[in-house]
Structures are given as C-alpha cells and as structure tokens.
Hints:
By secondary structure, the protein is of the alpha+beta class.
Amino acid sequence: MTDRPTDLSSLPSYREPRRALFSARKFALMASVAAGLGVAVYGFGPSGPSDLFSSPAQAQVNNEVSKVAQPVGFADIVERVKPSVISVKVNINEKVAKDDGDDNDSPFPPGSPMERFFRRFGGPDGLPPGMRGGRRMITGQGSGFFISADGYAVTNNHVVDGASKVEVTTDDGKTYSAKVIGTDARTDLALIKIDGGSNFPFAKLADGKPRIGDWVLAVGNPFGLGGTVTAGIVSAMGRDIGNGPYDDFIQIDAPVNKGNSGGPAFNTAGDVVGVNTAIYSPSGGSVGIAFSIPASTVKNVIAQLKDKGSVSRGWIGVQIQPVTPDIADSLGLKKAEGALVAEPQANGPAAKAGIESGDVITAVNGETVKDARELARTIGGIAPGNSVKLDVLHKGKDEVINLTLGELPNTVEAKADTDNGDDNGGVTRGTDVPKLGLTVAPANSVAGAGKEGVVVTDVDPKSAAAERGFKEGDVILEVAGKSVANVGDVREAIKAAAADNKNSVLMRVKSGGQSRFVAVPLAKG
Length: 525
C-alpha cells in the first residue's frame, strides 16, 4: 500500500469526466443522509434510472477511495523487528540480615493471613524459616534486543547488575543462557552474549537522530507478559533527569512499564533510535513520559564493552557548573552559555594547561559548548590520550588552550569537610556585609575553616544570599575574581562591582569540600 493518493482517472474502467466522480460523491453523501430517514436513493445512468452503487466502475472507484482513506498501521514494521527483541530474566543473590522484631522484612502484608500464620508459627521475627537471615534469591525481569546474528544483545545495566544467572527468552519462546560481557553504570547500558545459536534476528542502531514528533515503537516484555508493542512519538530531546553527568535522553510518550527496561524504541524504518531505561511516574505506572538512551550513545558504549568489557572516557580534571544569567552578567558575557570552571583538579590535564577557577570553556575543537552537561558529554565521548583544543574565556579574554585528555577515574572521591565551623574557636559574631545579607569572619580565625578566604558565620534568612544557598560554615574564597582574606577585601570587591554597574557579584565559595561559583544580586542603596 502506498501513502500517495491514487489517480482515479487512470483506472481502466473509468472513462467519465472528473465531474462524474464529484456527482458520485455528492450522491453518496445524499445516500448516507437519506438512509437515516429510510429513503432509497437512486442515480440516473445514460439509459435511465439505475442503482448508483451497482455500477462496476463506481464500485471500483469506491474501493480505491476506501484504500486511500485507511489509516497507516505499524503491523509490517512490528512483524519485521519484533523477533529481535528478547526477555531478560536474572537471578540475584541478596544478603538478608537477620533483624529480630523488624516487620519490614516480611514478604507478606501486615495483618494478612500468611503474616499472622508466620507470626504465630514462624518464629520471633514473623518470617518463614528460609527467610530469617543469610541469603535469598531475587528474580528480576527486563528486556533487550539482539545487535548481531551471533547472539550479542543490549539491555540496561540495572537489569543485569549483580546477576548470578542470566536467561534470555526469544520471541519464538526458546530460552538460552547468557553471560554479561560488560556494563556501564554511567549510561545504564550492558552488553550480554547468548550461549548457543548463530543466526539470531537482530536490530540495527539508527545512524541519525530522531526529530520531535517522529513516531516510535516501544517493544519489550512488560510485567513478564511476553512481547508487547506500544506506539507514541518523540516528545523531547536532550533530557536531563538527574541520572548523571552524561544525561542526554530522548523523551517518548509510548507507554513503557515495568519489564520494558532495556527494550528498544524503533523508528518507522525499523531502526533502533533508543534504549528504554526510565519513566517518570508518580503512581508507579506509565503516564506517557519515558526516557530512552540515544542510539549514538549506545553505539559508542557497546563498541567499547565488546572490545574490552569496560568504557574509557576522556577527562580534563575540572569541576564545572552551568553559566546562569546572573553569572553571565557578573562575567560580562552576552549569553548564558558555556561551562564555568569552579575548580581545576590539582595535577589534572586542565590545571597543567593553565586553566583556572572562573574560566569559562566555550568550545571544544571548534564546536560550541552550550552548557556544562554538553561539555561533560563531549569530553567523555573522546578517547583518553587524544589532544583537544578548548576555547576559554580567561580573565575576560578569549584564549585557545591545547591539552591531552586523561582517563576518567572509575570513582571520584569527594573530600568531606568534616569540620566546617561547628567549632568556631570563640569567633562567632563576625562582621556584617549589608549588601549581601551575610556576616563573615577571616577563615584563619575560625577553627576548621582553613587559612584562605572568609567564613560565613551568619546568613540573613530574607537575603538574596540565603535564596542562593549560602549557609553558616561556607568559605568565600573570591569575590568578583579577587581573593579575599577579610571583610575589608569583600567590601572593596563589592564596591568595585557596583561601580562597574554590575547587578550581581560573583563569588567562589567552598562548601562541603567542593567549590562552586555563586552570583549574588547586589542590594541597592
């Protein structure tokens, strides 16, 4: 069937002028109205009265019009791609700690007959004998799809994480054992390999990005019911759901439920545009907001997992944050774009190349960096050891810095500020900074605050500083790009910012062992 309209004049049995078709449609409309009134409607042919709809030519016309009017379905696409989708079942050994008297470990609802039975006969903790400690087996289920005929398949990391056993059921009902080749928690992707078989139907990862409004088909195994298909559209692109620094999800409105995790989202060409990984759900069920990992990310991650079982990412060694409109105003930027360097890591690639706190990275290898997340994704997508060119705004001037990427560590240890002002060493009052709503004191006069900057000893709860998250114990290291050691330095920096007609002043603040920049509006007067 084609989506193009049929040229009715080309039909072999159609020889009447086009106005005849118009008349036929007009009579058909009259017939539908008259039928509701119980009136028979007849047309007039060349030889006299005749039943309009008994004409062979008109019957063929009606048949062709009917075909054109039918809605386009997805049956052909589903028939082609569904065999590549699999159900993934896992067993996980979970250690269960014995905690006598804790009802929360009971698998039965409080007050249920089984709960009362085991409360009476099962022991003091109200649990069956096999569930009073030690280990128990947990079974989980998700979805996935073949990416090659020899049995490699993609699913979510959270589906197979910690699995002691993985089984795969194909669309034709056959079950196979599988092993985990590699996982990547940062993108929630995993690669598994099915044992046995060398001619599995597989899906192709899409080369391009979908557009907002494009059709998508979510295929998976919700609730263990077997292969199920739902349809929807791409609702949004580039979604950040707070899952990590590499969030770049496709949002779809095709219903995705429990058990769909790891399943593919197909486009109308039958290519996989994303791997379904999460939903937004106040109730626990689908509300039409689901998130898929883009095919471009899947390609990069899965290739590395297949090659070496893990993922290596480029690293420049900086703590970054978004450039907000207030921060852009403080730095004199025309647009709130780029990634603000809160603090370069000591001996990291960025620090060695001369990047400093307060610099704004605006491009990588000539490609504009829109925000901090885009910088993290761009650098993370480049292999360690490669050289990159960074466009940087440094102290108000544009510079180009070349550096060689390091490898992102598997774990990032954050230094905890365990003593950040609980013991103020007798100095509790500090000096007010009226334009900010803060009271500060030299950091070296407060035990545990360090030797640099000024420590916040009080925050006016109604001030702009309080609205931006300042709290007692925070250490202000810089104000308007200048290091501060006492309240006088703070006041001078604020005075200079006001003289430059700045609406806000930018501060570098250390809190909880990490640094960040905060733009605080200046009070007038």
